[in-house]
Design a protein that fits this description.
With 145 residues, this protein is α+β, with helices and mostly antiparallel strands. Helix content is 35%, strand content 41%. The protein has two domains: 81 residues, Transcriptional regulatory protein pf0864 domain like (Alpha-Beta Plaits, 2-Layer Sandwich), CATH 3.30.70.1380; 59 residues, no CATH class. Strand 6 and strand 7 form a beta hairpin. Helix 1 packs antiparallel against helix 2 and helix 3 packs across helix 4.
Length: 145
């Protein structure tokens, strides 16, 4: 279990371009996750709640970026504990070559998920649907392990 931090603010007067750029910048600056949740804001206006997951040591700096980029007047900070499944990366031989897969272990359930970038590269190179490449990699993993 680890402790992390969630930063959040409500935004109701902001363009999609600014939202996209803000998410990119936050991720480049060390945020672990960034999401926008549709909400009804003050006076019934449509808006978004921006949520950012980060390490506590980065919270002040990332909150400043949120305020700078969005113009919001305040950012909420919540410290929380997070339970994380054990994970490991393995290389699997497939008809596409070697591909990395992530294996997560939780009580009663193990999951296998091909690495996104590997599947993306193969799909683009071979002009095959992402899902088709993904499924073939999972089948290769199941045959080998």
């Amino acid at each position: 279990m680890i402790e992390e931090c969630m930063l959040e603010t409500n935004l109701d007067d902001i363009s999609g371009e600014i939202l996209g750029y803000t998410a990119e910048r936050l991720l480049a600056e060390g945020a672990k996750d960034v999401c926008f949740i549709p909400i009804f804001a003050k006076k019934g206006r449509p808006g978004f709640m921006l949520q950012v997951i980060c390490e506590k040591k980065d919270s002040r700096r990332l909150a400043a970026i949120i305020m700078e980029e969005t113009g919001t007047l305040g950012v909420r900070e919540v410290i929380f504990r997070k339970h994380i499944a054990k994970r490991k990366i393995k290389e699997v031989k497939t008809k596409f070559g070697k591909v990395r897969v992530k294996i997560s272990e939780t009580p009663g359930l193990n999951r296998v998920k091909p690495e996104y970038e590997d599947v993306r590269k193969i799909s683009m190179k071979l002009k095959k649907p992402y899902r088709e490449v993904y499924d073939e990699i999972v089948k290769s993993f199941q045959r080998q392990f």
